[in-house]
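Quick start: read one record
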Amino acid sequence: FCGFPLFAESQGNALYPLFLLLFGLLKPWVAYNYYTVLHFLLAGLFTYILARVMHVGKAGALLAGLCYMLAGPVLYHAHHTNIVVGVCWLPLLLALMELACRRRSVLALLGFAAATAALVLGAQPQYTIFCALACGLYLLWRLRMIQLTGARARTVAGLLVAFALAAMLAGMIAAAQLLPLMELVGHTSRAAEQAWPPGINPAVPGNLLTLFLPHYFGSPGLGSYWSDVDCGLYSEATLFLGIAPLFLALVGVLTDRSRRALVFGG
């Protein structure tokens, strides 16, 4: 009854550069359409860049970009642009991490910090956390691979410190958004919840079936729900990527037995 802290909630994108640019130049309903389409295109472009960094051919990289930008979980959230924003930045973060590890590039680290700050300013906080977890796991794996090539512990430690400094720089750039958000979290209703909200209980892995069978529990478009099981929102809980991405991932893992293929195929 006293208003809503839209800026602190962060999904208003008040400081996100692309939001400021488009909504500052165009009418809101026009800007919204361009904003949504732009981030789908960026998801494909950044995946193309990641694939090329991983020495994938141009045709394969183009196919990877198309599969990623048109994957089920991305399309399901076309109406929730903050999630699409979060999804689109992840491939670029991974590409910059790979370049920083491979070339010991300060420029790649600065790019990583800038991209991370953009992610924080534009994405839904939940997807910022998802991206941070994915980047953290990839960094641990990449540092382990560097260690196995005979690199000294000092080299590995130096890279770890460099990424920590890049993350700190990203936090400083996005601090104007992060600090109000962190303060708001402690005042929300979820801060006092003692149990998982319905539909997102992590102890129930049934939704993993939707990785292969998207309509297993039913479809809101077809009105075909058949069970009393609380399977959550369709767009939030359905994992199906598409027939082509699943098939190509399987082919990639079976034909390329390298550690890199297993990591990305998994």
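Residues 207 and 237 are 6 Å apart (CA to CA).
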